[in-house]
Specification:
The chain is about 65% helix and about 0% strand. By secondary structure, it is mostly helical. It has 2 domains: about 70 residues, Rna Polymerase Sigma Factor, Chain: A (Orthogonal Bundle), CATH 1.10.1740; about 55 residues, no CATH class.
Length: about 170
């Protein structure tokens, strides 16, 4: 049994030696430079020998080695990717604030607005800016008793929000 693992290692080395010319051709096609191709083949062989325990005998060694070589090539490209130092002032001028808050606020408003009694919704809709009177945000506080008569005076049959009790208090 001790001879079998030694034989597997020997077979692995022999198969690796047989595939080296193909690895070099593939490395040349990736790098288009002889020195870089030799370095890539060297790195591939080092990785293959280091990770030999993860190779399963009986599977395609060439495919395993080509995958290692391709991954090593891509890792090398990522390491060499140019990086440009970014000035903080320029980076801040290019960035934009997040817009998630406005969407959440609008969703909360619509949920709360939908829970209002129809007459309350109608009062809020009629108190919008652009009317004869100032917007609700600039009006002084009104009591429920003062708001009800104003709401009833503005009611008309074509508006569906005229039913129910009013409980709006202006602040």
């Amino acid at each position: 049994m001790a001879a079998e693992p030694r034989n597997d290692v020997h077979d692995f080395h022999e198969q690796l030696k047989a595939i080296l010319p193909r690895l070099r051709i593939y490395a040349l096609s990736l790098t288009r430079d002889r020195d870089a191709a030799d370095d890539l083949v060297h790195d591939t062989v080092i990785k293959a020998l280091t990770g030999r325990h993860s190779f399963q005998p009986g599977t395609n060694l060439a495919a395993w080695l080509f995958r290692i070589q391709r991954n090593e090539f891509i890792s090398g490209l990522r390491r060499q990717r140019p990086s440009v130092p970014v000035d903080t002032a320029i980076a801040e001028s290019l960035s934009q604030p997040a817009h998630q808050d406005s969407g959440l606020i609008m969703r909360e408003f619509l949920t709360a607005f939908a829970k209002l009694v129809p007459t309350q919704r109608e009062a809020l809709l009629k108190a919008r800016p652009g009317r004869n009177r100032p917007p609700a945000s600039t009006q002084p506080a009104r009591t429920i008793a003062r708001l009800r008569p104003a709401t009833r005076r503005q009611q008309s049959p074509e508006h569906p929000f005229q039913e129910g009790r009013s409980g709006v208090v202006w602040s």
